């Protein structure tokens, strides 16, 4: 197996939320997590790789317009299974 075409195994999607109280904004970042098989002269090893699949910043007013934090979390869970 070459370095250019590593084998990837999907693990799960993860959600990070950064709350900025001074600017009244929340940043939602959804990442897909993979276990990637690597191979070199020393042998075979695996590493975890994360790729951003959604990066969304909403003001607190926008969050309230959508139905609140619980509704945003529900939508992200339904869409990305986080």
Write the layout of secondary structure elements.
Blueprint: E1 8-20, E2 25-40, E3 43-59, H1 60-66, H2 69-80
Antiparallel strand pairs: 1-2, 2-3
Q: What does the model show?
A:
The protein has helices spanning 60-66, 69-80, and strands spanning 8-20, 25-40, 43-59. A hairpin with a 4-residue loop joins strand 1 (8-20) and strand 2. The chain is built from two helices and three strands. The protein has 82 residues and is of the alpha+beta class. Helices cover 23% and strands 56% of the residues.
List the defining traits of the structure above.
82 residues; alpha+beta; three-stranded antiparallel β-sheet; elongated; 56% strand
Describe the structure concisely for a colleague.
The chain has 82 residues and is α+β, with helices and mostly antiparallel strands. 23% of the residues lie in helices and 56% in strands.
Question: Fraction of residues in helices?
Answer: 10-25%
Task: List SSEs in N-to-C order.
Answer: EEEHH
Which spans of ≥5 residues are poorly predicted at pLDDT below 50?
Answer: none
Q: Roughly how many Å is the radius of gyration?
A: 17 Å
Task: Report the biggest beta sheet as strand number plus sense, adding barrel if it closes.
Answer: 3 strands, antiparallel
């Amino acid at each position: 197996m070459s370095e250019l075409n590593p084998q990837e195994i999907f693990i799960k999607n993860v959600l990070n939320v950064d709350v900025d109280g001074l600017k009244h904004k929340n940043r939602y970042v959804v990442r897909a997590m993979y276990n990637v098989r690597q191979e070199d002269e020393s042998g075979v090893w695996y590493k975890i790789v994360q790729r951003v699949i959604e990066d969304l910043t909403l003001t607190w007013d926008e969050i309230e317009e959508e139905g609140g934090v619980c509704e945003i979390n529900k939508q992200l869970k339904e869409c990305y299974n986080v």
